Every structure is written in C-alpha cells, then in structure tokens.
Amino acid sequence: MVIYVDILFLNNTLMTYAIMWSVARILGYKSNWWRLLLAAIAGTCYTFIIIYTDTIFLHGFFTVIWHIILNIVTALIMTYISFGKLSIVKFTKAIAFLYLSSFICIGATLSILYIFGIKRINDNKTYIFLTIGFFVLLILGHKGWKIFHSYITPANLLVPVSIYMKNKKVIVKGLVDTGNSLNDPITGAPVIITEFKYVLTLFPSELHSQLTGNKGGITNLVNAFAENDMGDRVRILPFSDLGQEHGMLVGFRPDKVEIICKNKKIKKENISLALTDRILDDGDDYQALVNPRILS
Fold first, then answer.
1. Is the alpha carbon torsion for 263, 193, 250, 206 positive or negative?
2. Cα–Cα dist 64/18, whole Å
3. What is the C-alpha separation between 43 and 73, in angstroms, rounded?
4. Residue-by-residue pLDDT tens, the chain, 296 positions
5. What crossing angle do the helices spanning 5-27 and 33-56 adopt, rounded to 10°?
6. Closest alpha carbon to 9 in 36, 50, 43, 54
7. How far apart are CA 236 and CA 258, in angstroms?
8. Whole-angstrom Cα distance, residue 98 to residue 266?
9. CA 269 to CA 289: how far, in whole Å?
C-alpha cells in the first residue's frame, strides 16, 4: 500500500482542525486559531504513530489496546492544547464532545457518500470526503450549540440578572432563551436583550430623555452616549428576531453582569446588553432575554 505522506498530513490536519473548531463553538470555550492548529497537528501525529506501529511490530490483541490508549492520550493532549487549563467538568465535557463531533462528522459523511453510491474512498475522491466533512462540521459548529443548550437548559428558566456600571446596580429577571443567539459583532461575546426602562437608572440623567424618546433613532442614541463619555461602551447589534428582520439594536457594555443560576453565581465582564423598547413579556415575568452561552 502506497501512502502519500503530504496528502495524509494535510487531510488529517484540516479535518481535525475543523473538529476542534466545532467543539469550541458548541461549548463556547475560548481558543484561537493557532492553538486549534497545534491541536490538529497533534491529532495528525497520532495517525502517523498508529501507521508506523501497526506496520512494524504491533499485531492482534495488543494493537487494539495500543490504539485505545494512544487515542485517549491524544484526545487529552489535543483538548489541553486547544483550551488550556479547565476544570475537571469542563475538560471532561470537551473530551466527550470531541468524540461526539468526530462520530457525527464521520457517520454523516459516510452516510451521504453511501446515498450517492460512493462506497469506497480512494486518493482521487479524498476531496469529496473532506468537502462533505467540512460542511457537516460547519453546520455542527454554528447550530450545534443551540441544540446542545436546548437540552441542558430549561426553556422556562428564570434567573436574576444583576447589572453593574459606575457604582450603580440594577436587578432584572431574565429568561434563559435558547432562541437568543445574538452576539457582539466586535468581541463575539453573547448578548443579553433587555427592556431599556428597567436599566434606565444606570445612565446619567442627561441620557434619559434620549432613551425614552429616541426620536433621532440609532444615530441620535449613539451621539448621546458619546456626548456623555460613554462612546466606548456603545454597541450596534444587528438582529433578525423580535418580530423584525435585519434590524439594529443599540447596546452598551456594563462593567459586569452577575447571574445566579441553580445556586451558582456566574460573573461576566465582557457581556453586552441590547436595549429594546419592546415589551418582552406581557405578564412582566421577565424583563431580559439571556443568551444561554453566558451560563456555559
């Protein structure tokens, strides 16, 4: 059997990178491209080690044991390289989703190939396998976290949300909404949508009239924030829900946000709040929609 080392290295590295990227997206773990690339290279080294040991000296039962041990060790190394130090729970979750993403990707790719009558992958058809695999992982990375949180987060979970800014504090009741996938386009941080009237006391009195009237639209609000030395906190947030397609919301970045969920206090300093004049709940049971990524 002829093995083209360069093609094998490139294919495995690209696919492993895509898998690690999807895991980071689903779980909301912080990483960057070079850490994911190093993890992908480590995963590719595993493939070459397996090929070498199988062709040189390992056979039979010992091959199975060696594969299992090396596979687990490689998964641990890849996860550590990708995300650094994590708690035992988060690290274990990352390992689990690494295997889950791999199984879903490989299973979906082979199923699609089988549907189209391709039952064997050779060197000439490797690009087909890669293309389908990337497509599966792209969907998994972008939509998988919504599906994941829809199972682990009750749709009707209400949590107290404390918002701090310049020695001021307001508390609103937030609904953990799996439909809220709004992110800050600059930082990528998840966004909390809140009715502006409940956070009005956080702002200088000079801003109250602009927020309540908002006659000049988004431009007027942005200028008003800038005039009150809050221009660096302003965010323009595009959205496609709340009954409007391709809309825009004005947001701001508070000093920090605290959420108490299941007797656990979650503190975040990089959260943006989107301000809306719409009534989120007619019964006033909640005044904010919390992106479930904040709880992960």
1. negative
2. 26
3. 10
4. 445 566 667 777 888 888 888 888 777 788 888 999 999 899 888 888 877 776 766 566 677 788 888 889 999 999 999 998 888 888 998 898 888 887 777 666 666 555 555 555 554 555 555 565 556 666 655 565 555 555 555 545 788 899 998 888 999 988 887 677 778 877 778 889 988 888 888 887 777 766 666 555 677 777 777 777 777 777 787 776 545 556 778 888 888 999 988 778 888 888 888 888 788 887 788 889 888 888 76
5. 130
6. 43
7. 23
8. 25
9. 17
pTM over 0.90: no
Distance of alpha carbon 176 from the chain centroid: 16
Using the 8-state DSSP alphabet, how is residue 262 labeled?
Answer: T
Q: Are 280 and 193 in contact (CB under 8 A)?
A: yes
Q: Which two tokens stand for residue 93?
A: 């979750």
DSSP strand pairing (256-261 vs 158-165):
antiparallel
State the amino acid at position 23 in one-letter form.
V
The three-point CA angle 97-33-48 to 5° equals 70
d(CA 93, CA 263): 21
First and final C-alpha spacing in the chain: 46
- The residue assigned the tokens 């389908």 is 132
